[in-house]
Amino acid sequence: MSRPDLPRLVLRADGNPRIGLGHVMRLLALADMLRPDFRTTFVIQEPSAELLALLTAAVDEVVEMTAQPAAGEPAWLAQHVLQPDDILILDGYGFEYNYQQDVRPHVARLVCLDDLHSFPSAANLVINPAGGVSAADYDLRQPGARLLSGPAYAPLRPAFLAAAASAAKRQPAEPDTILICLGGADPSQQTQRVAEALLALASVRQVNAVVGSAYQGWDALQQWATDQPRLLLHRNLAAADLVALMQLCGAAVCAPSTVSYEYCASGGGLLFTQPLADNQRGIDRFLREQGLALPYHSAANVLTSGEAARVAERMRLAQHQHFDGRVAERIRRAFAELAAADSPAEQGAVATSAASPSTAAPDGLTIRRATADDARLYFDWANDPAVRRNAVHTEPIEWEGHVGWFGRRLADSAAYLYVLEQDGTPVGQVRIEFDGEHVAASGIIDYSVDAAWRGRGLGTAILHRALQQLRQDRAGDWTVVGQVKPQNEASARVFERLGFRRWGTRRLHDEPYDVFLHAAAAFGSPA
């Protein structure tokens, strides 16, 4: 167990056959990642004996809360559990804005795992495992609040992180062996129905169905399985055993939840998703849009098409791009930054550099399209020594060449040049150049902050404001791309705060660049 002198995380979630175990398992994965840096206390209402044993083995302390409605919880927590130096982490759909406001005064920091973004947030930090979302999708009301989103920040258990780190070296399994895992509880009892449909396909050699301790149809499922020689049942598998089983299955039918991410991290393959609850829609959309999964209703056609192996390989390569096994180090860094802001005054000081741009952007920040009169302004910004160091072409820019280049960009309908001003003073620029006007066009981002305004967190604010404006200026679907030199950590953090996802590296002029991607839809409707 953890050292008693470490700061404490208080984890609050419930799990049972009705709501499943997803919230609990996510917090346990998060607790495991943060174990070197924090003590952990888990607060839960009415856990089953099996779940209580799991929690007791995983955290430093388990507190069984008196059964009560959500409205009564903050006072109970304040009286029985919470201490002023705690970081409280909430995962569940009853912890709405008023609840968060009521517990905030009793802790140092508040963190929420939230994949619905359906109500305002009073948290300092929000984690959404779904990709394709940004701070603009949230109503983040706490000054300095941050959003961490996508697989890069999805809490996964150590066995899955280790598997992800070596997934590319592993020989993939054939898609005729299929995993079914619709969550630990499968409250709508879909496991047998899906297994029956898959076993009816001649191309399927074996089906492995996995359920958890909260699954209530186990006896009936076992009885039915006695007449299914190609079906193997598994219940309440340990993480290492589930990894091993997933690696034997070249195809899977999963709920679009943590279990889908676990399958991708274990090595992946032909993944079909079957949403069972509204909160799974975000991950489902992300997996399908990124080519990481297909809808379950297409499973029969794909598995019997003769193309299953080819589709599985393509999907597996895409999955490896998103699951690199480095989630724990990112999460630990984020929580270290969160814990380091020791007072409200200090928190306000770092808000601009670690903030949700929707809440922390300066009130007087405005945006406009660049004009010919801005040629000198762009020229001076482009020749700033720090800008040149991080540019693809590092040599100084000549005025004559700049004038011609600037005029061509202003005339190009696929180029968007913006000037950001703070109370009328130019403070930075954002330029986004698309590779044409076609539907699938992608835009390369270039941005910079005036030297006199650096160190105030404006990079995040101006880029977020420009992307909002671009959503109005350019119709249709598109993707924007950031290219960052590895040593430019500040710029990488800007893209991550805005919900961009890392997409490997590319070489430009024989130098490596980290690539960040974001889809237009993630920035929401026009402001």
TrEMBL record:
<feature type="binding site">
    <location>
        <position position="157"/>
    </location>
    <ligand>
        <name>substrate</name>
    </ligand>
</feature>
<dbReference type="Pfam" id="PF13302">
    <property type="entry name" value="Acetyltransf_3"/>
</dbReference>
<keyword id="KW-0378">Hydrolase</keyword>
<feature type="binding site">
    <location>
        <position position="262"/>
    </location>
    <ligand>
        <name>substrate</name>
    </ligand>
</feature>
<dbReference type="InterPro" id="IPR000182">
    <property type="entry name" value="GNAT_dom"/>
</dbReference>
<dbReference type="InterPro" id="IPR020023">
    <property type="entry name" value="PseG"/>
</dbReference>
<protein>
    <submittedName>
        <fullName>UDP-2,4-diacetamido-2,4, 6-trideoxy-beta-L-altropyranose hydrolase</fullName>
        <ecNumber>3.6.1.57</ecNumber>
    </submittedName>
</protein>
<feature type="active site" description="Proton acceptor">
    <location>
        <position position="23"/>
    </location>
</feature>
<dbReference type="GO" id="GO:0016787">
    <property type="term" value="F:hydrolase activity"/>
</dbReference>
<feature type="domain" description="N-acetyltransferase">
    <location>
        <begin position="365"/>
        <end position="522"/>
    </location>
</feature>
<dbReference type="GO" id="GO:0016747">
    <property type="term" value="F:acyltransferase activity, transferring groups other than amino-acyl groups"/>
</dbReference>
<dbReference type="InterPro" id="IPR016181">
    <property type="entry name" value="Acyl_CoA_acyltransferase"/>
</dbReference>
